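Handout, section 3.2

Students often ask what a structure token actually looks like in practice. Rather than define it abstractly, here is a full record for TetR/AcrR family transcriptional regulator. The first block is the sequence as you would receive it.
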Amino acid sequence: MTETGLTLRERKKLRTRRALVEEALRLFSEQGFAETTLDELVDSVEVSQRTFFRNFSSKEDVALAPERELWAAYAADIESRPADGLVLADFQEILFTAVAGMAEGWERRFVVSRALCDRTPALVASSLEHCAQVTDRVVDRLARGDRDRELLLRLTFELMLSAWRWALKQWSAAYEDGAGPGREELYERMRTAFATIPRVAALTASQTRVGLAG
């Protein structure tokens, strides 16, 4: 989220939220997620716990904020479009748009958050739960109660998510190695992953034919 078009009050709230995310990621990375208390975090940012809970529901929420900001933008874009006619290419393009719309410095915060998540079981569980919630939100919005359409949409969306995870893993590894790749490098890996999806579909069709022939 950027500050363009926001009121002064909204800009202050956004800056407080970002300060909480930055400091949370620093403390969690240095001290450990479980070892860092909420009191330490709010004292470091010089805000109250009440302010924290106006922005986040939990320590897990603030630790995974970069990921959740991305998927909130993604789901909002999906919900702004007509429910009919969206296909895999649209799902992919909307993800490119969501990444492009993230605020400056998002990629660094995202990589730090992802690394923290990978070594913290509580965050892995929270991230998986959130992914399931986003998937349900997107699929329910587009399926509109049609069971057959729901299955097709869910499988399509999950396929895109698998490609996204591969691209993210490759990009994050390069970032952590010190190369510091930006969003263009992430886009490149996304394009590579998404371009492979038709080959997966072709392989599935080929296996189906073999099965029928047998």
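Discussion prompt for tutorial groups: Confidence is low (pLDDT under 50) at residues 210-214. How would you have guessed this from the sequence alone?
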